[in-house]
Design goal:
Helices cover about 30% and strands about 20% of the residues. The protein has about 200 residues and is an alpha/beta fold. It has a single domain, classed as Alpha-Beta Barrel (TIM Barrel). It has an 8-stranded parallel β-barrel, surrounded by 4 helices.
Length: about 200
């Protein structure tokens, strides 16, 4: 079970997530996100993290050339794309497709995606989707992650229902000010590692 801790905005939070066992760290470049970081902030986070720990950039409706430019400048290992999916995925970069799941009709394959992420109906909202819908997306044959409304309290149940390759969380491990809460980060990682499939 891979664990991506996302929406990291500071070096301190990135190091906390790394120390608590994250398999990947996520930084958000979507313009209207309250968790958005600048390229300068993202570069500082990348420089502080162990070199083997992947840093994933999250983008919304961004042109592929812009995604690639930011990835090279920051040192991203992958880009998670919300919204429009590029017609060409010819990039020297792993591209993850994020699907906002409202119902079964949202489960559409994304040619060239190295991973499919099923998210709640609105990215960053902390709202979940029906985890049983993941079964259909698994038929795409692409590694499947789930996100949206995950918390230390429900991640084990979500894993049991969806049986994903990994989980992705942002708001579920934050404090009231929007920064990562050490106790919640620790509890989330522990619960996800201890979860089992039905």
């Amino acid at each position: 079970m891979r664990i991506k801790l996302c929406g990291v905005r500071t070096v301190e939070d990135a190091l906390l997530c790394a120390e608590e066992g994250a398999d990947e760290i996520g930084v958000i470049f979507a313009p209207k996100s309250k968790r958005r970081v600048t390229v300068v902030e993202a570069k500082a986070i990348r420089a502080a993290l162990p070199s083997h720990l992947p840093l994933v950039g999250v983008f919304l409706d961004a042109p592929l050339d812009e995604v690639v430019r930011v990835a090279r400048e920051v040192g991203l290992q992958a880009a998670q794309l919300h919204g429009a999916w590029p017609l060409s995925t010819a990039a020297d970069l792993a591209l993850y497709a994020a699907l906002q799941v409202t119902d079964e009709s949202a489960l559409q394959p994304r040619p060239g995606a190295a991973r499919i992420l099923l998210d709640g109906p609105a990215g960053g909202s902390g709202k979940s989707f029906a985890w049983t819908l993941a079964a259909r997306a698994k038929a795409f044959g692409t590694p499947l992650f789930i996100a949206g409304g995950l918390t230390p309290e429900n991640v084990a149940e979500a894993i049991a229902e969806a049986q994903p390759s990994g989980v992705d969380v942002a708001s579920g491990i934050e404090n009231a000010k929007g920064y990562k809460d050490p106790a919640r980060v620790r509890a989330f990682v522990r619960a996800a590692r201890g979860a089992s499939f039905k």
